[in-house]
């Protein structure tokens, strides 16, 4: 089974994805981590960025100044779209390869993809999980975590699909607006539901529908 976890920045999707992967005994992958690897010096993403903007966003050690680039792309929509055109196909390629390797061994995977619905990858998965938190809660978390101002945090959120829209499109929703213990309970319930679906999928069609023993 392939499960995608998404949500707005500051929603807590990384924590939920890790918790869910552990609960269903799945391999955990992150689009953000893949992106980070692709942006290392001389990696494919890095090469694409340098081809587009030269050394404008490079530090003296040739690594990309991610903070400087993040601020630039969330101020300039055209630049953000150009960066996405460079990185998204590369991220998709890497994730598909990782998922195929797990599927080939009969395993399960949970994949955290912040822009799952924005890039239209949801049909690649058996289940999609949105981690939901209201905008004000997310803003507070972003400010505290990243040390940026509220205006900058809201600018990042405004560039993404609204949490409510994501929730409408998902097959499952986890609310992470309150106590973490409440989130853990929701993830545990979801894990049990997914385990049930996995077992049902593993049955022959006739036995799953009619409760019959397969004939030789």
What does this molecule look like?
The protein has 216 residues and is α/β, with parallel strands linked by helices. It has a single domain (2-210), classed as Rossmann fold (3-Layer(aba) Sandwich), CATH 3.40.50. Helix content is 58%, strand content 11%. The chain is built from eleven helices and five strands, in the order E-H-E-H-H-H-H-E-H-E-H-H-H-E-H-H. Strands 2-3-1-4-5 form a five-stranded parallel β-sheet, sandwiched between helices. Helix 2 (31-38) packs across helix 5 (77-104) and helix 7 packs across helix 8. The longest helix has 28 residues, at 77-104. It is globular and about 55 Å long.
Question: What attributes characterize this protein structure?
Answer:
single chain; alpha/beta; Rossmann fold; five-stranded parallel sheet; 58% helix; globular
